[in-house]
Amino acid sequence: QRQLAKATNAEGKVDFDLLAELVVSAYADADRDRERMDRSLQLMADELQVANTRLLDAFEIIPEGIVLLSNEGRYLHYNKKFLELYDTASDKIKVGSSFMDSVIVGVERGHYLDAVGHEQEWLADRLAPDFGDERVIEQHLRGDRWVSVRERRTADGGMIGVRVDITDLKRREEALSRRSEQLVEAQRLGKIGDWQWGLDKSDMWWSAQLFDLLGYSPDTFFCTRDEVAAIFIDDGAHRLLEFQSDIIRTQRAGSIDVKLRRGDNSIGDFVIAAKAMQDDKGQIIGLSGTMQDISERKSAEEKLQRLAYHDPLTGLANRALFNRKVNDVLTATKRNQNSAALLLLDLDRFKEVNDSLGHASGDELLGKIAHMISRVVGVKHFLARLGGDEFAVIVTEFSSKAEIAEIAADIIQTVSGTISLERGDTAIGTSIGIAMIPGDGASLVDLQRNADLALYRAKEDG
After folding, report:
1. What is the pTM of this model?
2. CA–CA separation, 203 vs 222, rounded Å?
3. What's the rounded Cα separation, in Å, for the pair 375 and 197?
4. I want to staple 273 with a disulfide (CB 3.0 to 4.6 A). Which of 174, 232, 255, 284 is the partner?
5. Contact 364/422 with Cβ under 8 angstroms?
6. pLDDT in tens, 256-280
7. DSSP 431-452
C-alpha cells in the first residue's frame, strides 16, 4: 500500500516504472511461495509414499492374513498370507473384485469344511451385512486348517479383517480334549472319581464320576460332612478323619481302604487317596484326591486267600493255614504263659468207603464229616483239614485237660454214627491223638510228631 501510494501522486498520475517494479516483485514473491508450497507438497507426498510402502511391507511381513474391503464390499488390499489361506479362490481375489463372490466360490469348491452339508445356511450367516461393528468367528478350512477371523467396520463403511492361523492351537485343544476324554474313560473303567475339600468349607466337592460310582444323585445327595460320614460302614468315618489329619500334619500323600454304602444300599470296598492342597504361600487350604471302587479286587483277593488257605472240598482251613495257626498259638502261649491243645483226627474205615462207593462218595463223606465236626467244636476252636481223611483241631479255651478229652469224645461220638450218602449209608469212626501246647512240643514239628504218636497209639488201642 505504501508503494502504491508512492507510485500515485496527488494529481492522480501513475509512476508506471515504480508500479512495474511493484508488479514484478509481487510475481516473484508469488513464485517463491509457489515453489515453497510445491516443495512442501512433494515432501508430504514422499512421506506418504514411504509410509504406504512401509504399511504394505508390514502387511506382507506379519504372519496373519490381512484384507481391506471398500464400503461396497470389494477388495482394496490383501497380503500373501490371506491368499495362502484362501488359495482355492485366489483367482477370484483381486483388487476391485467382490468379496462375496470369492466366498461363494470358496464354498462351491469345498474350501470351507464347516460349510459342507449346509452351504446355504452357512453363506447366509457368513455374508450377513448387519453383524455390528465387529465380529469374531472360527473357520475350518480345507487341509484341516483352522482360522480365527476378526472383522471390524471402518469409518467409511468398509471393513478390515485379520485372519489368524490357529491350526496348531486347535490340534492342541483336540489333543487335550482327547486326553481328557481318555482320562474320563480311564476313570470310568478304573471306577475312579475325584473329590476336594477346603478347610474353610463345610461341604465337599464330588466329580460327576464319583456320584455315578457311588450311585448317588447330586440333586438329592448333598456332600455335607454329616451326609458323607453317614455312608461309611463301621468305624470308616473315624479312620478317615485320622487319615486326613495325618495328611495335613505330614503333607504327604496317602491312601486308606474303607467300606461305603452305595445309593442302592449295597456295600462296597473303596480306596480313598488324598493329598494336601496349598495356596501360593505354601499354606494348606484343603485336601484333594480320588476314590476308587476296589470291590472286585477285594473279592478276588478274598477268593485267592480262600484258595491259598482253605480246603476247596470242605471249606475248612488247609495245612498252610493250620501251620500258621499253630505257630501263632505257640507264640501266644509263650508270651502269656498259658496252654493250648492240638487234636489230630484220622477217619477209620474211610478207605473202604472209597473202594466200595467210589471217590465221589468219599468226597461227599468228607464234606459231611467236616460239617459234623464243625458243629462240635463251634467257632471257639480252630478246625482244619490237613489232607486225605486227616483233620486237626486247635483248642485254645479250656479249663482242664478233662474238657479237652470231652471235646474229643464228642467228636468221636458224632462221627461214629450212620451217615447217609447218595449211593448208600455208611458207618465209620475216628481216632484222635492229643498233644498239649507247649508241654508236648515247643515247635510245629515236635507237636505234630507227638500228636501223631498219640493218634497211632489210639488206633492200636482201638
Report:
1. 0.49
2. 8
3. 51
4. 255
5. yes
6. 999 999 999 999 999 999 999 988 8
7. EEEEEEETTT-SSHHHHHHHHH
